[in-house]
Amino acid sequence: WSWPDQPKAPLKSSTDAAGRLVRAANIARSLVPCPSLEPVWVLARICPSIVRRKSRAAESGRERQDMAGFIETYRGTIYPWHCDHLGHLTVMHYVGFFDQAGWQLLSALGFGRARLEAEGRGFVDVKATIEYRAEQHAGGLIHIESGLTRIGTTSVTMYHRMCNSESGTIAATMEIVGLYFDLEAREKVPLPAAEKARLGGFLVEPDAG
């Protein structure tokens, strides 16, 4: 028995990730000259890491599409000391993770620490609403995606959703009203007019409960 000796027409390629995959498939088919074999099967036998990378790229692409309008503001692991005697992630650490995400969001909005200190400004939280949707346990991988749901005259409403990074399940959401604050006068002040149009690019729709 031997491989059939038939000409193999190369697959079309392009400059994107899919193109790189089919170019690798063409190489693989030249190494295993059997036109009846599917290129991905050949890659799986010869270069399994390529197929795994392609699969991960597709998963990542779907995740980015699902995140449309959101930006990632936190990624981490739940350790045993994040959990309480009930065996799940405890409230104080939900708040802590969301708090870290909030500073990342403000920086992405253009209100980083250096600017706020130089201008004597800050954001103070006046209202926070948390919804707990799915228990999380030690060893769980989580990430937080954030955006704005409202831009007011002197405030913004920030929205965070914590997701299990492996299942995609939303673990919890937090919505926070933050006032733009004069740190010397200790009172709220209007958001810079020039900033408000740019902040509109961070608007998102809250997830249905």
Structural class based on helices, strands and sheet pairing: alpha+beta
The count of DSSP E runs of length 2 or more, i.e. the number of strands, is 6
User: β content, as a range?
Assistant: 25-35%
Please report the distance between the alpha carbons of the first and last residues: 61 Å
Descriptive account of the structure:
This protein is an alpha+beta fold and 209 residues long. It is built from 6 helices and 6 strands, in the order αααβααβββββα. Strands 1, 2, 3, 4, 5 and 6 form a 6-stranded antiparallel beta sheet that branches. A hairpin with a 4-residue loop joins β5 and β6 (187-188). The longest helix is centred in the first third of the chain and has 19 residues, at 48-66. It starts with 16 loop residues before the first helix and ends in a 10-residue tail after the last helix.
Layout: helices, strands, pairs:
Blueprint lengths: L16 H15 L7 H8 L1 H19 L4 E7 L13 H18 L4 H7 L1 E12 L8 E11 L3 E10 L5 E13 L4 E2 L4 H7 L10
Antiparallel strand pairs: 1-3, 2-5, 3-4, 4-5, 5-6
Helix pairs in contact: 1-2, 1-3, 2-3
Q: TL;DR?
A:
Strands 1, 2, 3, 4, 5 and 6 form a six-stranded antiparallel beta sheet that branches. The chain has helices spanning 17-31, 39-46, 48-66, 91-108, 113-119, 193-199; strands at residues 71-77, 121-132, 141-151, 155-164, 170-182, 187-188.
